[in-house]
Design goal:
Layout lengths: L3 E4 L4 E4 L9 E4 L4 E6 L6 E3 L6 E3 L14 E6 L2 E3 L12 E7 L2 E8 L2 E8 L6 E10 L5 E14 L1 H4 L3 H4 L5 E4 L2 E4 L9 E7 L5 E5 H5 L9 H5 L12 E11 L4 E12 L6 E3 L2 E2 L2 H9 L3 H18 L3 E4 L3 H21 L14 E2 H7 L8 H12 L11 E2 L17 H16 L8 E2 L8 E2 H13 L44 E2 H20 L3 H21 L9 E2 L5 E2 L9 E2 L1 H8 L8 H12 L1 E2 L2 E2 L2 E2 L25 E2 L3 H10 L3 H11 L8 H4 L7 E4 L10 E4 L4 H13 L2 E4 L2 E4 L9 E8 L2 E8 L9 E4 L2 E3 L3 E2 L7 E7 L1
Helix pairs in contact: 7-19, 8-10, 9-10, 10-11, 10-12, 11-12, 12-13, 12-14, 14-15, 14-16, 16-17, 16-19, 17-19
The structure holds beta-D-glucopyranose (BGC) and 1-deoxynojirimycin (NOJ).
């Protein structure tokens, strides 16, 4: 079954059936106000923080699933239908959902009435616009009852779904001039409220959920819609909602446009009230006035489209392969921005309450969008670094609202510090902004700030000071693979693998951190050298060289790189093991870092990855899967074989292999891997794949799972950024470096003529590549018509146009 297709001209994905294998969602908002919206209109909104400022309620893992969100019921005679099909699930005569850049549009038709629902969060406004146009395409007059409903969340999403003894008594609303204001806890410690409004007179309203659904009723068939009447109750406790009833009469051919607004307002403490007990609504009125007509909504929508056009204009390709072009030009970059905005907090798999911003996650996510939003990336790096500990370790996560490290999870993930170096190096390579290194940034719990450079130095030294018996890096709680918990030894089902610790951690070593240290250490050495810190650079280089030697001495297993030594000093990821003989991570990182090239190790390791881990749907993280629980390995062995870190296709690490293949000169293999997990190449298997065909998912079930190829955890994954790095910097080969843009494509034979544009440090590069299979030595590069000897093309003056031609 096919559920949709791309519309490249409009930069939209068009969903043509509402019963997709899983809700296919989009994200609205890029600044402070965010919404998730499914192809049925399901989802929820929040302000800045999905846990602490949740505006509307969503019941995860509910049945029927995805029945909450923006609810519009059209009652036409005895028929009740929703534009997005759910929750009433009345058959529609036509249905189409278009997810575009920061907006979603659902159009449907039933019995001659068409609905056209446009949802977006305007630039610079804390609200979601919901514009609904109803049209009468029939030959007779239509008299319709329209009901619009939104269910409020009592702000703290965690408390909202757990603490009923309190929160079933706290709900409060105000209704004034047909607008519903949600003001729970506004009287005491909050200075914010939400509102729901429509730019037309209403025939009735309701604010108490039970009055709307009826006792024991649900949103599929609410009692108030059946009776065509909203009682107009003011909610007191229980579950506050905002529901409107509008009576609409349409002559044949006539349309009616309505603008609904879900808004969020903060009032300064001194201006909270307009009269005792009455919210000051001045700011809400101003917000409503900005979007109270069709023309204002159209103007805001155009502004949003223009901003996305600008964001996507920094990198574009025309390769002759439309599946490649649409991912690179639109969807991969779009997902990178979303992942950057959301971190790992709110998706249809992440509840928005569990995780703040991950130290390693955000440092990697940044690589996918630093060319689009360099200033925001800079600020994020400063925020992240300020949650670092004075010893160079780091809080694993922090909350975006408070910018404080998350104490429940703590630190001790020994890969974390290195990602900061990678992120800062990536930022400097893109922008040339060396001044970031001198920015004052505090360490956690240290009042006197150090410089950003000092943070990088302590990051580097954190690894140097934490080496194990083989002079390889101690793993700490885990490295990038959160489930490789070599010091955890958990036998208690009531504790989390992510926090439990029982060993002192002075033995178990990570070969992935070793590979990272070599590769990222080279960046650090460069940073030292280029900022005049020669001695530090020499010292750092010496440490990197020692790490290479340690890997060669203790990290090679004969056919591939080991993954780790456990806390007994036993090998992990070795042919000596029964299960988990080979893992992808250390092989990819050591190959990217060219460790052991003199012995042919990178190619051997990559061959082993190809032969033992690569499948039709991507490269599995390890093989064979663990069939039993290994207390000395932790969570990795807790998943059923083929899922997640236990031999799933963990898409995040596939691009590392692609990059390593490019480094090794095997362009065809890199592109082949790219296509195996890239969503636009998987359109033919939508039913099996299940998740959205326009974005990457974190995991695809591996070859050991019953439904190999089935994806989960779409949207918020480091996969987005790393695939963008792999395809843009390595396969297409346009790579920011400290001195300029390196043009070093690794194109497969099938991509013969490729044209690219890239904005870089104020200049615009137009790059043409002719690929006729020359050897690397026969390649030529011309810049503005002149043959050059180096493939690093430095930027010119601000605004310069640079033409690059590559014959390869
Ligand atoms: C998952 C990991 C995730 C970790 C932290 C584990 O259960 O398998 O992928 O990184 O939780 O949330
Ligand atoms: C998802 C987490 O967000 C990421 O930080 C981690 O590296 C991977 N899972 C692998 O465990």
């Amino acid at each position: 079954m096919v559920y949709g297709h791309f519309d490249d001209g409009a930069r939209e994905y068009v969903i043509t059936r509402p019963d997709t294998p899983w809700p296919w969602i989009n994200y609205l908002g890029t600044e402070d106000f965010f919404s998730l919206v499914s192809n049925a209109g399901g989802g929820y909104s929040f302000y800045k923080d999905a846990r602490l400022r949740r505006l509307t309620r969503y019941r995860y893992n509910d049945v029927p699933m995805d029945s909450n969100g923006r609810l519009f019921y059209i009652r036409d005679g005895e028929t009740v239908w929703n534009p997005g099909w759910r929750p009433a699930r009345t058959d529609l005569e036509s249905y189409e959902c278009r997810h575009g850049m920061g907006y979603t549009r659902i159009r449907s038709l039933r019995d001659g009435v068409s609905a056209d629902l446009l949802l977006f969060v305007p630039q610079g406004a804390d609200c979601e616009v919901q514009r609904l146009v109803l049209s009468n395409a029939s030959r007779g007059r239509k008299t319709l009852d329209l009901f619009a409903v939104t269910e409020f969340c009592l702000w703290n999403a965690m408390d909202d779904m757990t603490n009923f003894q309190r929160n079933l008594s706290t709900g409060e609303v105000e209704v004034e001039e047909g607008v519903v204001y949600h003001r729970t806890e506004y009287r005491e410690r909050r200075n914010h409220f939400a509102f729901y409004s429509v730019n037309a007179p209403v025939a009735g309203f309701e604010t108490d959920r039970e009055q709307f659904t009826g006792r024991y009723g649900g949103f599929e068939k609410p009692e108030a819609v059946s009776c065509r009447r909203l009682p107009g109750t003011l909610a007191s406790g229980w579950s506050p909602i905002a529901a409107f009833h509008l009576k609409i009469s349409l002559e044949p051919g006539e349309s009616r446009s309505l603008v609904f607004l879900l808004g969020y307002v903060e009032n300064p403490d001194a201006e909270k009230w307009s009269a005792p007990g009455v919210i000051n609504k001045t700011r809400a009125a101003a917000l409503r006035a900005r979007f109270d007509s069709d023309s204002k909504v159209e103007a805001a929508f155009r502004e949003l489209s223009a901003s996305w056009c600008a964001l996507l204009s920094g990198f574009s390709v025309s390769s002759g392969d439309e599946r490649l072009d649409r991912m690179v030009n639109v969807w991969n970059q779009y997902q990178c921005m979303t992942t950057y905005n959301m971190a790992r907090s709110a998706s249809y798999f992440e509840s928005g309450i569990g995780r703040g911003i991950g130290f390693r996650d955000t440092s990697q996510d940044l690589l996918g969008c630093v060319h689009q939003i360099p200033l925001r990336a800079r600020q994020r790096l400063l925020d992240v670094a300020s949650t670092q500990f004075a010893d160079g370790g780091a809080y694993h996560q922090y909350q975006p609202l408070t910018r404080q490290g998350n104490r429940d999870v703590g630190g001790d993930f020994n890969d974390d510090p290195l990602w900061l170096i990678l992120g800062v190096a990536g930022y400097i390579k893109e922008t040339g902004d060396w001044a970031i290194l001198e920015e004052p940034v505090p360490f956690d719990a240290e009042p006197v700030p150090a410089t950003m450079f000092e943070h990088l130095l302590r990051s580097f030294n954190h690894v140097v000071r934490n080496l194990g018996p083989h002079r390889l890096p101690l793993i700490g709680h885990a490295d990038w693979n959160d489930c490789l918990n070599l010091n955890c030894f958990s036998t208690d089902p009531n504790e989390s693998f992510q926090t439990a610790v029982s060993r002192d951690g002075r033995t178990a070593e990570s070969m992935m951190i070793a590979g990272m240290f070599v590769l990222i250490g080279e960046d650090f050495t460069q940073i030292c050298r280029r900022t005049g810190r020669k001695e530090m650079a020499d010292e750092a280089q010496a440490r990197v060289n020692e790490m290479r030697s340690a890997i060669l001495a203790h990290g090679w297993d004969g056919g591939w790189f080991l993954r780790a030594y456990d806390s007994f000093g036993n090998k992990v990821g070795s042919r000596e093991n029964t299960d988990g003989q080979i893992y992808v991570e250390a092989n990819a990182w050591c190959a990217m870092a060219r460790v052991g090239t003199e012995h042919g190790y990178p190619l051997k390791a990559l061959d082993a990855v190809r032969d033992r881990l690569a499948t039709r749907y991507g490269i599995v993280i390890l093989d064979p899967p663990y069939r039993e629980y290994h207390v000395e390995l932790g969570e990795v062995s807790s998943y059923p074989p083929g899922y997640k870190e236990n031999a799933g296709v963990f898409c995040h690490n596939n691009p590392w292999v692609m990059i390593a293949e490019c480094v090794a000169g095997r362009a065809g293999q890199a592109f082949d891997y790219y296509k195996r997990i890239c969503p636009s190449y998987l359109e033919g298997v939508q039913e099996l794949h299940r998740t959205e065909p326009y974005v990457y998912s974190q995991m695809v079930a591996g070859k050991a799972a019953p439904r190999h190829g089935e994806a989960k955890n779409s949207w918020l994954t480091g996969t987005a950024a790393w695939n963008f790095v792999a395809v843009s910097q390595w396969i297409l080969g346009v790579r920011p470096e400290f001195d300029g843009l390196r043009i070093d494509p690794s194109l497969p034979p099938e991509l013969r003529n490729v044209e690219l544009t890239r904005k870089f440090r104020g200049c615009r590069y137009s790059i043409r590549i002719r690929n006729s299979g020359r050897t690397p030595r026969e390649r030529t590069i011309t810049v503005n018509g002149k043959r050059v000897g180096s493939d690093v093309v430095p930027p010119g003056k601000e605004g310069a146009e640079i033409r690059v031609e590559v014959e390869m």
